[in-house]
Amino acid sequence: MKQLKYILGLLLMLSVSISYAQDDLNNYLQIAADNNPNLKAKFNEYMAALEVAPQVKALPDPQIAFAYFIQPIETRLGPQQFKISATQMFPWMGTLKAKENVAFKMAKAKYEVFEENKSKLFNDVRALYYNLYVNQKAIDITLENIDILNSFQKLALIKVESGKVSAVDAYRIEMEIGDLENQLALLKDKQYVFEVQFYNLLNIDYSDPVSIPETLWETDITLTKEVLLDSMLIKNHQLLNIEFQQESLLYKRELANKNGKPTISLGIDYTSVGQGENNLAGTDAIVFPRVGITIPLYRNKYKAIIREVVFQESAKQFEKENKSNLLENLFENIWKDYSDANRRIDLYKSQLELAEKSLKMLKTDYTTGNKNFEELLRMERQLLKYNLELEKSRADKQESISFITYITGN
Predict the structure, then answer these.
(1) Other CB atoms within 10 A of residue 25 CB
(2) Consecutive H or E run containing 224
(3) Which of 45, 55, 189, 258 counts the most CB atoms within 10 A of its CB?
């Protein structure tokens, strides 16, 4: 009963540790979202695109004209002194709404570009975090193996002093330790480089080492492969960006048709009339309304604009089909990596358990006899390899899940 409580306590501590580690990663993601300069640039491009709609949906600015008669024109009521005119152009009904819709859809396309960059940034942060984890575990495992080799060296020296084995055994262990210490120095340098890259991705100054969990969580995908594929084709931000561009082209074609319609202008003229020679008091004459119409006679221009939009629509459809095919190929490749990582985790857990048992037996054999030294070193290398491969498999699995999350738009 006490053993069961102990195991449950260990499992609880492990789950709490994993939860805290995931919280650390989520905090890093939030920092990246707040600080990354490229993401800020894409967001500001989206905000700028939003400001286009109020500009294009407004009526053209009214025209005000002032004319002063240097040589007054005599009329029956008196000489005309100056004239003020005001004109307002009115596009064909629905033209301004079509312009607004084009701008609005293009702004939504910009938003999908922002979301795509945010998802990619999060995937990059996660990928680099998992690289940090694997490299840190490589450091820890290498240190553990150096400790194991040190214990072997002490054992070998005792046997050398007793004359049971040659000093070659101790020398070979010392050579193995030297190789591992050199590898350890490289791993530590590599860890520092990874941390600098990680903080640059977050766009903050390098401070403390990145918080890495003792054991990487093994969260899994809860949806089926088919559901994820459907989600990718519906929610992927690159595809949504193309779809909004396609929608904007529909309104652009409507706008081209509207631009081929007449434009109405309404105006008002105000003329100031002075006192004439007939001693009549000056009379201000107001002419209202003044109506004008702009007739689009050169139809080829508007037909060409419509044809241009049709070609653009066709190009966007082909672009979407091509992007869908590329994403599907990418998904299948990542799903293969995800499945492979799952298999490798199970394999290396089993291999590691067998290697640990074998190493223990070989150490006992070497302690009690003079045999199996070659096998002892070989098994120690296998133990190092399986430890590293297990941690890499865990990281590869989470990296695959992260990339699937990225391309499916979740």
Answers:
(1) 21
(2) none
(3) 258
Residue in this structure with the two tokens 């595809």, named with its chain if needed: 239
What are the pLDDT digits (tens) for 299-309?
888 889 899 99
- Specify the higher pLDDT residue, 404 or 293: 404
Sequence-distant (≥ 6) Cβ neighbours of residue 117 within 8 angstroms: 38, 39, 42
pLDDT at 111: 97
Measure the CA–CA gap between 97 and 103, rounded to whole angstroms. Answer: 10
E strand spans, 274-321: 285-294
Side-chain-side CA neighbours of residue 250 (13 Å): 10
Entry pTM = 0.82
- Distance, first Cα to last Cα, the chain: 44
Alpha carbon distance 114, 118 (integer Å) = 6
Tokens representing 110 are 């910009």
C-alpha distances out from residue 206 to 27, 164, 196, Å: 16, 54, 6
Q: Give the whole-angstrom CA distance, residue 177 versus residue 230.
A: 52
Token output for 183: 């590898």
Enter the DSSP assignment of 60.
P
Element (H, E) at 71: strand 63-74
- Report the 10 Å Cβ neighbour count for 141: 19
DSSP state of 268: E
Cα 124 to its chain centre, rounded Å, is: 8
- Written as six digits, the tokens of 21 are 């580690």
Topology annotation, domain 22-58+91-261+296-407: Outer membrane efflux proteins (OEP) (1.20.1600)
Residues 382-406 as b/e (b if ≥16 CB within 10 A, e otherwise) read bbbebbbbbbbbbbbbbbbbbbbbb
- Comparing CA positions, the residue from 179, 190, 211 lying closest to residue 384 is 179
